[in-house]
Amino acid sequence: MPDLIVRPRRLRTTAALRDLVAEARLDSKMLVQPHFVVPGKGVSHPIDAMPGIDHQSVDRLVETVAADFDLGIRAVLVFGVPDAADKSPDGRAAAADDNVVATAVAALKGRFGHDLTVMTDVCLCAYTDHGHCGLIKNGRIDNDSSLPHLAAMALSHARAGADVVAPSDMMDGRIAAIRDALDDDGLVETAIMSYSVKYASAYYGPFREAAHSAPAMGDRRSYQMDARNRREALIEAELDVEEGADILMVKPALAYLDVVSDLAETFPLPLAVYNVSGEYSMVKAAAEKGWIDERAIVLENWHAFRRAGADIIITYHGRLALAEGWL
Ligand code: PBG
Ligand code: ZN
After folding, report:
1. Do 196 and 260 form a contact (C-beta atoms < 8 A)?
2. Residues with CB under 6 A from ligand 1
3. Which residue in 17, 215, 225, 239 has its CB near the most CB atoms, within 10 A?
4. Is 251 a catalytic residue?
5. CA 211 to centroid of ligand 1, rounded, Å
6. Cβ 52 vs Cβ 212: under 8 Å
């Protein structure tokens, strides 16, 4: 026996002591609950690969958000899922002032006002008939001609009252294009949460079923980031900061915590992680089989996001976690 044993275990003795010294903490106010809005009335049907998450029409969405609000959720991210008939080569329905997202935003802001932060996903893939996030020219995803369409989409959401617009398309220069369009319209207070570092990922599988946005041909590797790259994330994030982003995001979350940590250390802006559909569905599937403890897994993942430096967690598990009192 040595004379002196250094004993880090001392502070692990009781739950109260562990809670006292815990570094990473969670708060319901840092959670963002995503929603998939469809046309119609009275619609609420489950998304197969994402148990607990539904496609909902605006009227049902408002009811769901009200129930979530009572649980403590204070921020939502709205995705539009238009009818197939509304899809076109340039995805123009994305910017229509009366589309499902604009309607949902107006309804939510009308009901909850400043008490709820309403964020909208800005991307063309659910609205283009080819399912890509930008326009196609000569068989390629064309960066620059996509920008005005993305800006118009963001503008329509902002005019409807969105607090935050969140471009997920990964075109170069879109933050500047959107910021310009918003400012020109006097919407200087609408914030931009940039999907700054969005990797081409197999973890989006269930989402593409939910959003009906799978590309009809090819994949998204010519615009989303390559999973093998870490340093490149800093280039993407720095550009977004220069172009006027207010919040940065890393997506997916679990397999990219090195990148989360890099951004948290490099940029003072608030940092979000998107705990994406595939990450959610894997946990749900294993939990349904009784192979894992869902609560323990979710908290462990969320604490990992916080440890890596994330301020905001976008997660499909938000509602369940609060309903079950996990926090
Ligand atoms: C659309 C978009 C995607 C997600 C958010 N916005 C899918 C994609 O890029 O293919 C993924 C969200 C999730 O998987 O939960 N650009
Ligand atoms: Zn897209």
Report:
1. no
2. 121, 123, 125, 133, 168-169, 204, 207-208, 213, 220, 276-277
3. 225
4. yes
5. 8
6. no
Structural domains in the chain, sorted by start: 24-323 (3.20.20.70)
Closest CA to 124 of 109, 112, 111, 136: 136
Cα-based angle 226, 230, 233 (whole degrees, multiple of 5): 80
Of the candidates 152, 134, 252, 272, which has an alpha carbon nearest to the alpha carbon of residue 203? 252
Cβ(273)–Cβ(260) below 8 Å: yes
Reported as half-sphere exposure (CB side, CA atoms, 13 A), residue 186 has a value of 2
* H/E run at residue 61: helix 58-71
Rounded distance between C-alpha atoms, residue 99 and residue 109, angstroms: 16
Q: How confident is the model at residue 144 (pLDDT cuts 50, 70, 90)?
A: very high
What gap in Å lies between CA 231 and CA 233, rounded to an integer?
5
pLDDT at 134 over 90: yes
> Which ligand number lies closest to the CA of residue 279?
1
User: Does the pTM of the predicted model rise above 0.90?
Assistant: yes
